[in-house]
Q: What sequence folds into this?
């Protein structure tokens, strides 16, 4: 039929144009076998590297005052609900703080616990002016605690050379700040070693 002849001539011309270096005999041989494989080299897709979203640097955070607490927010009463939440969090963490609980087990959990909302007191210090400061921890940094007192004063107390105490349900725990120079996120993953004596 006329249609098949047109199709054959079209395929022959197409193959000749697609593979100009191939001889007519080789093209005819390919057609008789009725299996035509056209060479095709796909373009390699270049993988686009995902750009990691960079957060603010410490300097930028300070310039933007991201961690500053506004003066009108520096009121002890505002953070009392936070303290109630913290107490419930510690009770759940330590399975109720029962009288028969082992102190070293509770101490180990408190070492890794989040202290935002805890009421602490500076019991010992190489600087006498810090002794007696009591309040709710609002922010914990690597080297300092920011504490709001009952007098609605925001105190920045260094951890170094200070001993803090916190009391919950009759259980009193002491925090030796010199051994506590870690960010809260780092502290939760750190393995603390038990030591016999700790000095300021």
A:
């Amino acid at each position: 039929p006329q249609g098949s002849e047109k199709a054959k001539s079209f395929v022959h011309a197409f193959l000749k144009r697609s593979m100009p270096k191939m001889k007519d005999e080789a093209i005819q041989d390919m057609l008789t076998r009725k299996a035509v494989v056209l060479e095709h080299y796909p373009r390699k897709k270049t993988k686009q590297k995902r750009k990691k979203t960079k957060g603010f640097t410490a300097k930028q955070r300070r310039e933007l005052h991201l961690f500053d607490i506004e003066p009108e927010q520096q009121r002890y009463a505002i953070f009392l609900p936070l303290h109630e939440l913290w107490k419930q969090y510690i009770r759940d963490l330590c399975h109720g703080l029962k009288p028969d609980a082992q102190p070293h087990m509770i101490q180990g959990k408190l070492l890794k616990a989040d202290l935002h909302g805890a009421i602490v007191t500076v019991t010992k210090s190489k600087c006498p002016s810090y002794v007696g400061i009591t309040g709710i921890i609002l922010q914990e940094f690597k080297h300092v605690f920011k504490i709001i007192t009952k007098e609605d004063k925001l105190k920045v107390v260094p951890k170094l050379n200070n001993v803090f105490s916190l009391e919950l349900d009759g259980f009193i725990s002491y925090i030796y700040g010199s051994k506590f120079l870690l960010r809260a996120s780092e502290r939760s993953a750190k393995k603390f070693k038990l030591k016999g004596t700790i000095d300021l």
In short: The beta strands are 119-125, 134-140, 144-149, 154-158, 162-168, 171-176.
